Amino acid sequence: MTVPSGPSNSPSPSSESPASESPASEAPASSSGFRVALEVRGLRHRFGDFVAVDGIDLSINRGEVFGLLGPNGAGKTTTIRVVNTLLPLEEGTVEVLGRDVRRQPMAVRRLLGYVPQQLSIEAALSGRENVSWFARLFDVPRAERRERVDDALAAMGLAEAANRMAGTYSGGMIRRLELAQALVNRPSLLVLDEPTVGLDPVARDGVWQRVEELRQATGMTVLLTTHYMEEADALCDRVALMHLGRVRAEGTPRALKDELGPGSTLEDVFRRHTGGSLEGDDKGGLRAIRTTRRTAGRVG
Amino acid sequence: MSVDAVSVPIGRDVGVWRRFPNRVYTFCLIEVQKLRHDRTELLTRAVQPVLWLLIYGETFNRIHAIPVPDGQSYLEFLTPGIIAQSGLFVAIFYGIQIIWERDAGVLTKLLVTPTPRSALILGKSFAAGIRAMAQVVVVLVLAAIIGVNLSGNPLNIIGSFAVVLLGAAFFSCLSMTVAGVVLKRDRLMGIGQMITMPLFFASNALYPVTIMPGWLQVVSKINPLSYEVDALRGMLTGLSTAHVGLDFAVLIGWVIVGVVASSSLVSRLAR
Hints:
Number of helices of chain B: 12
CATH topology of chain A: Rossmann fold
Radius of gyration of chain B: 20 Å
Order of helices and strands of chain B: HHHHHHHHHHHH
Number of helices of chain A: 12
Structural class of chain A: alpha/beta
CATH class of chain A: Alpha Beta
Shape of chain A: globular
Helix content of chain A: 25-40%
Strand order of the largest sheet of chain A: 6-7-8-3-9-10
Largest sheet of chain B: none
Distance between the termini of chain B: 39 Å
Order of helices and strands of chain A: HHEEEHEEHEHHHEHEHEEHHH
Largest interface: A-B, 69 and 41 residues
Strand content of chain B: under 5%
Largest sheet of chain A: 6 strands, mixed
Oligomer: heterodimer
C-alpha cells in the first residue's frame, strides 16, 4: 500500500487533523484492525417530538454491500445523514473505520463517497468539470487528478459525454455522473441514498450494473438505502429491514427468505416482520419523500 | 487485488493552512468555468452601470450640482462609485446561488466533503468577487472609452481589483447570512432588493459625505460600501482625502465578520 506521507504529517493546530492526516497509517487494515467499515450502536435521532431513528445497531464489514430496506419514513435517510455527518449525532455511537463521527467529522468525510437521493449536479458545468471539482474538494493530488477524473468517468460509462454540459444529461447519466463524483476519491465507504429512485427501468439497470462492476473490481464497501426489494436482492450481501425507526430483521437476503420457506420474496419477509407493505401505504415515490424531507427540515 | 489497497482514499489531508487557500481556489475556478460557459450574464449585468455612467453621470457632469473635491470632474468622482455599485449588485444576490444549490442537493454533497464550513463560505465569497471583478473590467473599459481620467498605474489597478474583491466578498457573505436565516429564494430576493438601494444611497458613491445630513453621515461611516468607494477613489483618481490603508483594514474586518456569521448558519441550509 503506498500512501505518501508528505508535509501533512507535521503537527497542525486543527483539532481534526490528528485523525485525518494519513488514513493508511491510522488504519491497520491489513492486520486484524478494522474489519468493520461502519459500526453503529444505539443510534437515536429526533426531529422535535418525532423519533425518526429509534435506537438502531448496525455493523457493516469491509467489502460488503449493505442495504437498508424499508418504506418511506422508516428512518433510512436519517440514519445515512447521521453517518455522513450532515446531521449531528445526538444519541449513540457511529464509527467509520474507527473514526467517531462526533469527534472526527472531517476524518470521516474524507473516507466517504456520498450520493444523495435527489439528482444533484451542477448543470452549468461539463461532466468532467463536475467530477474534477470533487477531486479538488477531496484534495486528490494534482499529479493524479486528471487520470482519476478520467478513470471515474470511464468507469461510469461517461467518457464520451464528459465534455458535454451536465445540464444536457438524462436522469440515468446524471446519477452515474454523481457516482463518478463520489468515486473520484476512491472512498472507503460509498453511501448511496435511494440510488435509483425516479429513474426509468433501463437507467436503473445501468446504475445497478455499474455498482456491481465496481464492487467486483474494487471490493469497495457500500451502504445503500432502498425501498425496491429487487434492488436489495440484486445488489446486497446483507440487508437490514427498517420500519418506524427500528431494525426489524437483518441478514442475507437468502437467509431471510429461507426462514419463511421456499418461494418467499423479501416483500414477504418484510410483511412478516412489520405487518406492513414494503412499498408503504403511500405509493408516492418522489413527492411523498420530498414532503417528509421538508417536514423534517422544518421540525429539525 | 487486495481489498485494503483500494479502500484507502487517494485524497489526504493537506493541513489547515493549505486547505483554506486550496478550497478558495477551487470555488473561484468553478466560478470562472461557469462564467466561461455562460457569458450572457456578464453582458446583461453591464447594462445598469452603463446607464449610470452614460446617462446619470454625463448629465450631472454638465449641471455641476454636486460639489466634488480636489477639482475633479463629476464623472471622475462617480466612476469609482459605479464600480463599487456593480460589484455590490452582483454580490448581494449571491446567496441565491447557495439556496439554489441547497434546493438542487449540491450543497449537501459539498458539506460532506472534507471542507470546513468557513472554507466553503470563504471560497464562495471569493467566487462572488471573481464575478464582481469581471463586471469591473466592463466599467473600466467603458470609463476609458468616454474619456474618464483614471490612474493607469498597474499597482493602483491591481489594488482596485483587490478592493472590489473584498467588497464583493463581504456583501456576498451578507447575502449568504440572510440566506441561512430565510432559507427561501424569493424571500432572499425581497431582502436583497430592500437593502441594496439604502446601502448604495447611504454611501459616498454618488456624492461626498460632507453634503449629507448628520445622521446619514453616521450611517455612511458604518457602511462598508463607503470604504470600498473611498479606496477606489484614492487609487484610481488620486483623491487626496482617501485613507486607503484604513479602507482595506475595515473591509478585511467586515469580511471576517461576514464569513463567521454565514458559516455558522450554513448548516441550517443542509437540514
